[in-house]
Amino acid sequence: MSRQNPLQPGHPSGQRETLQEISDIKRIMERSSRFISLSGLSGIAAGLCALTGAYFANNILNDYFFEYNHDGYIDEKFESLKINLLILAGIVLAAALILSFLFTWRRAKQNHLPVWDFTARKLIWNILIPLISGGLFILAMLQFDEWRFVTPSCLIFYGLALINGSKYTLTDIRYLGYFEITLGLVNTQFTGYSLYFWAVGFGILHIIYGVLMWWKYEKPPVDLKE
Fold first, then answer.
1. What is the largest CA-CA distance in the chain?
2. 128-137 confidence digits (pLDDT tens)
3. Residues 36, 113: contact at Cβ < 8 Å?
4. DSSP string of 8-50, one letter each residue
């Protein structure tokens, strides 16, 4: 009875080795063409920062409208409101970026991958194009005291940035971009609830996305022997 050569394509051992080699090649190609160190914990941290910011923004707005109902419109107080909200937005953005970088850096180190390479630069550049465009557009609206569409614009341009950058990182981020754009478009019809839309888009959706990404890519494998 002749034995089958393990190197022959039909041999089970040969098939396993071939599949393993294909898997290794695919993983190497993915690492070279995509930035895969984005951490789900980064999304969760960014979402928590956004919800915290929405809480303080709600308090600032409530204080302003309480004084508005009592004293009427005062230009100095309205200017103070705008400055306070812009400062709060800057703090929330800085905190979210710092925490996101720390979690991403930690995951890259765990996987022995570089944090800043050619792929990361392409990802950042493709994200920055819509973000910078959106930021300049929003500043132009603020210049003419048009506040109604600030939040919808933030959501829409942020969603476009995610979709534009998704081809250089985990493709799952594209779906978050779709939800952000959809939420922003709906917000254009309900501008009186912009703070709630902002909290959902940048807070809740980020947390949901972060949890799903952590579960899919970062959850430690279960050791059945224990």
1. 100
2. 999 999 999 9
3. yes
4. STTSHHHHHHHHHHHHHHHHHHHHHHSB----HHHHHHHHHHH
Most confident of 2-6, 17-21, 107-111, 151-155: 151-155
Instruction: For residue 144, give Cα distances in angstroms to 12, 148, 159.
Output: 70, 11, 24
Contacts for 141 with CB less than 8 Å, ≥ 6 apart: 147, 149, 150, 153
Reading the block at residue 80, the tokens are 């103070």
